[in-house]
Amino acid sequence: LPDVPLDEALEVPVECFDRNIINACNWNETRFPFSKRRMLLRDEGDPHVVLLDFGQANPVVWKTVASGPWARGLQLIGNNQVMGSRLDGYEVFDLTTGNVVKAVTKFLNVQSAYRMATGETMLTRSGTSLDFLDNNDKVAHSITYPSYGFVRVARPTIHGTFLVPSDTVLFEGDDTGKVLWKTTVPCAAPPCDSSWSQIYEPRLMADGNVLLSTFFGASLDVVDQNTHRVTKSFGTKKMTNAAVIKPNASRLRNRG
Which residue in 255, 217, 256, 206 sits closest to 239, CA to CA? Predict the structure, then answer.
């Protein structure tokens, strides 16, 4: 951490808890100038996938209609392609043109999609069910977590487990459908909110803690790997509907 004053109660730099600044302590503007940035966006309300280039006067490189209303998530999958879910499967976009080069449309109640390191495509479906598709887009195997009907964007960890957001509950499950731990009351100590509302996406970080984003809470929270309580919270309702906030990718560690 940089050499800045510490709040003795928090034992971390006070500047790191500025609710209006993401990456308040590890963002280097000289390395990542705004004019050099590109951004992929997924608009769920007005279902489009958009590529922006902030080095252009008109930053929109392309804007492609995507399946809605449950079209969520984007993932770079190699070969100059990006994948996103649709309510009946998933679709793949060409990163240069934005054209849809593949669409899989034979599944029901799909909330999100993720390409695993094994090459399988994981569909998170209402239920909560994780279906793993082979190269022919047939279900090779599935994992079901009973009693967790509401779900958004589940993600794998490097430990072979899965972080699953179920509305106000975050849990980690194994490949047999067993819930290893869950948490519902997040706040360990200020500054953080006392409750979650529609957890959107959790990710395992390199330090073992979990980074998750909430929709109606509009927050980005760090969940301690041992206590499963929030130790840091960025954003909150001051950044309305900040559903998925991705910090510097070097802070994340997720290899499927």
Answer: 217
